[in-house]
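Structure in, sequence out. Go:
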């Protein structure tokens, strides 16, 4: 006799992965339970991540452009200091509008039962939520990640900010130290600097964006520094202390010299840790590591009826990656059609200004893994629209192996949008000749994509051999100007 469960499919976590899976499973006819520990659905992205950070970045960009009026031939206005409470209010308004899409009412209309509270596994099929037990035939764990606190002497006794507090400040701090040099750290550093805060970045690695090509990372760093952000890379944090209401950080540079800096606020942007400790996963027999919940390519844990997706697995920590994984889970758990996750052509974007986006392998990765690697670079300073916009910093780097594109990185205006044209090239098999031959409206930033593809195709079309054949066939006489 088959075991009876309360639900066909249970989801723990109301972020991108969980909402995608719950919505899809319910619309496919499954009886679905969705559990969220916070007071509202939406996950870290809506409340403490993508949405508030990009809203903040936009406000900072507008204020920055107002200060740049004279550069565009306009009268330079006198601007009062930023009232950060109004910026925070705008962030909340944007969140509230998006929250409507991630509401209990919407998911109830899809047939999903939503419960709030901390979830704990009782056994492989049973979860306890605030004293009430629910059973499901299959489960998805999508509890996300949170800012991790490194083991730095003194940190535990010093007040600091993470992504959970930074967007709800009621006043702009005079100064801030940012620990870390990745996407979150650089976005926050530039945004607060543009709003009028004095910002210092302390990065352990020798460069910002430690996993990316140094030449591309340097382009972003140069802009940050030109705007007033102080950047120290290759440093080792020795200890932190609070002095007269200020945070003081003692650090050592690569030459062994000791230094210190002081600021009104300290922001941690050093990394993320999976949220899984309170789930009592041992009761379900689910294997974990320091990185997160262990899953196979079908997002299955050590218990094949329990899946995990999103940041909690330690996989690429992007909202769009979590949504993609939620779809993988639906295919395997609901459709029962085997489907594997493939991150080979996962696009990403850091929303600094200029933006930094990429897909596939960067140059360093390609040279380590492949042979016959070559790179084609196009500068935004040669793009007419970028010139008109006054956005000349940055470049596009196309990475090829034996003539086949294996990756693209872009540092420049709207790099995330420009990267979208490379997704079908990388993942869909669209040929470079097709991109090079496609008509792009003029003047647009996207012409840089066409130009990069054309730079690869042109030597083949205009080769001496082709010229010689055409000259022989049609009696062409060569150059008209001898200069």
């Amino acid at each position: 006799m088959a075991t009876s469960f309360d639900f066909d499919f249970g989801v723990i976590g109301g972020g991108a992965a969980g909402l995608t899976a719950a919505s899809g499973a319910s619309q496919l006819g499954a009886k679905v339970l969705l559990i969220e520990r916070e007071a509202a659905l939406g996950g870290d992205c809506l409340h403490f991540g993508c949405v508030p950070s990009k809203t903040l970045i936009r406000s900072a960009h507008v204020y920055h452009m107002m200060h740049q009026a004279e550069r565009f031939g306009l009268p330079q206005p006198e601007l009062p200091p930023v009232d950060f409470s109004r910026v925070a209010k705008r962030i909340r308004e944007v969140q509230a509008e998006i929250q409507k899409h991630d509401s209990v009412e919407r998911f109830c209309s899809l047939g999903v039962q939503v419960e709030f509270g901390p979830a704990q596994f009782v056994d492989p099929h049973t979860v306890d939520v605030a004293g009430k037990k629910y059973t499901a035939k299959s489960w998805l764990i999508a509890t996300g990640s949170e800012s991790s606190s490194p083991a730095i002497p003194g940190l535990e006794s010093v007040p600091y900010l993470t992504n959970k507090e930074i967007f709800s400040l009621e006043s702009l701090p005079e100064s801030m130290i940012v620990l870390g040099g990745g996407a979150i750290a650089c976005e926050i550093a530039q945004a607060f600097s543009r709003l009028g805060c004095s910002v210092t970045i302390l990065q352990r690695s020798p460069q910002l964006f430690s996993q990316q090509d140094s030449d591309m990372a340097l382009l972003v760093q140069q802009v940050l520094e030109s705007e007033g952000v102080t950047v120290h890379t290759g440093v080792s944090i020795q200890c932190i202390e609070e002095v007269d209401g200020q945070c003081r950080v003692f650090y050592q540079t690569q030459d062994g010299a000791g230094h210190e800096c002081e600021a009104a606020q300290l922001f941690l942007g050093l990394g993320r840790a999976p949220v899984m400790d309170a789930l009592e996963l041992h009761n379900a027999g689910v294997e974990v590591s320091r990185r997160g919940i262990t899953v196979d390519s079908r997002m299955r844990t050590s218990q094949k009826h329990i899946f995990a997706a999103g940041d909690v697995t330690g996989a690429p920590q992007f909202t769009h990656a979590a949504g993609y994984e939620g779809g993988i889970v639906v295919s395997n758990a609901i459709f029962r059609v085997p489907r594997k996750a493939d991150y080979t052509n996962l696009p990403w974007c850091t929303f600094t200004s200029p933006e930094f986006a990429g897909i596939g392998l960067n140059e360093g990765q390609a040279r380590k893994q492949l042979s016959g690697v070559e790179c084609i670079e196009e500068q935004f300073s040669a793009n007419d629209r970028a010139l008109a916009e006054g956005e000349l910093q940055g470049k596009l780097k196309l990475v090829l192996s034996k003539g086949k594109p294996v990756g693209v990185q872009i540092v420049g205006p709207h790099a995330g949008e420009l990267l979208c044209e490379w997704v079908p090239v990388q993942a869909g098999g669209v040929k470079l000749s097709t991109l090079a031959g496609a008509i792009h409206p003029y003047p647009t930033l996207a012409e840089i994509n066409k130009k990069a593809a054309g730079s690869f195709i042109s030597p083949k079309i205009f080769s001496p051999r082709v010229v010689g054949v055409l000259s022989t066939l049609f009696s062409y006489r060569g150059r008209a100007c001898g200069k």
